[in-house]
Design goal:
The protein is α/β, with parallel strands linked by helices. Helices cover 37% and strands 17% of the residues. The radius of gyration is 17 Å and the shape is globular. It binds zinc ion.
């Protein structure tokens, strides 16, 4: 079985280096890793990782809503330049988060700009969304053709909206701790599901970093909850991931 970790922050691990994480992941069948930016300083780190592991890394350049006040001047120009330079790069992670950062205006501004760039360069968009269901009403009509709500843990009503707009829904280990996991997992059509670690964050094991070699276990558990054959499920998710990352 083959897998793609559709959201990881390889630049943020403390306990293991990227080379070890990638080779352990590959042994477990994880052959590609979408490496998501959070802050502007990540862009150079992720492009360096991509240069080192071009077969395995799918770079994603963007700015996370938690750090909207630390973007620095001219970030839009620099982001556009790096997206043009790396034609396989995705945009993100970006999005909206009222729990961590209640101030709407700066978040709107950077999210809108990243949506615009994703559309201009025809790139998939990695969306972080927390406590923002109503706020998202302003965005459904303008999202790019391909987008994913990453590490999904929200309500099933929002899920229906994402799916109706042809969006993807990506699950990390955090879904396994959700009381409504069965309802949520069963509500997504098979062709819309992606899997991720969000490593080093959101480990299944408290206090530990989250590694890509957990992806097969995550797939197995989700297939079991959905009542699907694991191999068929994994194959479907792998095809979805290839279609999503366009590689
Ligand atoms: Zn993330």
């Amino acid at each position: 079985m083959k897998f793609i970790d559709t959201h990881i922050h390889l630049q943020d691990f403390k306990t293991r280096c990227a080379t070890d994480i990638i080779s352990a992941g590959k042994k477990a069948g994880v052959e590609k890793f979408v490496c998501a930016s959070v802050i502007r300083e990540d862009w150079a780190k992720i492009s360096a990782l991509y240069e080192e592991f071009p077969e395995n890394i799918v770079p994603a350049f963007g700015l996370h809503p938690w750090y909207v006040n630390k973007t620095g001047l001219g970030w839009e120009v620099e982001l556009e330049k790096i997206l043009a330079e790396y034609p396989k790069a995705l945009v993100g992670e970006t999005g909206l988060d009222r729990l961590h950062f209640p101030d709407k205006e700066p978040q709107n501004e950077i999210f809108l700009k990243q949506i615009e760039l994703a559309k201009k360069y025809k790139r998939p968009l990695l969306i972080h969304a927390v406590k923002c269901q109503e706020w998202l009403e302003n965005y459904w009509a303008i999202l790019p053709e391909k987008f994913v709500f990453h590490s999904y843990n929200g309500k099933s009503e929002l899920l229906k909206k994402i799916v109706s707009r042809n969006g993807y829904v990506s699950f990390s280990a955090s879904i396994l701790k959700n009381r409504d996991k069965e309802k949520i997992l069963k509500a997504v059509p098979p062709e819309r599901i992606l899997l991720e670690t969000d490593g080093p964050y959101q480990s299944f094991y408290p206090g530990q970093e989250s590694f890509p070699d957990f992806i097969p276990e995550l797939a197995e558990e989700i297939a079991r909850i959905r009542g699907e054959n694991m191999e068929l499920f994994a194959d479907r998710v792998y095809q979805n991931s290839l279609e999503f990352v366009q590689c």
